Amino acid sequence: MSKSIALSLVIAASLGLAACSEKTQENASNVAENAAATAENAAADAMNAAENATDAAANATENAANAM
């Protein structure tokens, strides 16, 4: 009888560890997805900043040409 109780406890502990590792994998996946989204947003922001700088330079050139 004590062997069956011990076996039940081992099985319960194993299932608990398996559930914990699934949750850890899910969390790691979410972290990776969030990091990718953050990197994508940073790249988009950098591209927008470059486009804005190009527009500002073009406007400055046009204004200088108009002033002549």
Characterize the structure shown.
This protein is mainly alpha-helical and 68 residues long. The protein has 1 helix and no strands. The radius of gyration is 29 Å and the shape is rod-shaped. The protein has one domain.
What brief labels describe this structure?
68 residues, single chain, mainly alpha
Q: Could you outline the blueprint of secondary structure elements for this entry?
A:
Layout: H1 2-67
Helix coverage percent of residues?
A: over 70%
- Sketch the topology as an H/E string, one letter per element: H
- Arithmetic mean of pLDDT: 84
Distance between the termini: 101 Å
Query: Which regions contain 5 or more consecutive residues with pLDDT less than 50?
Result: none
Gyration radius (Cα, Å) is 29 Å
Into which percentage range does the β-strand content fall? under 5%
Count of the separate structural domains: 1
Major sheet: none
> Which structural class fits the helix and strand makeup?
mainly alpha
Total strand segments: 0
Q: What's the number of helices?
A: 1
Shape: rod-shaped
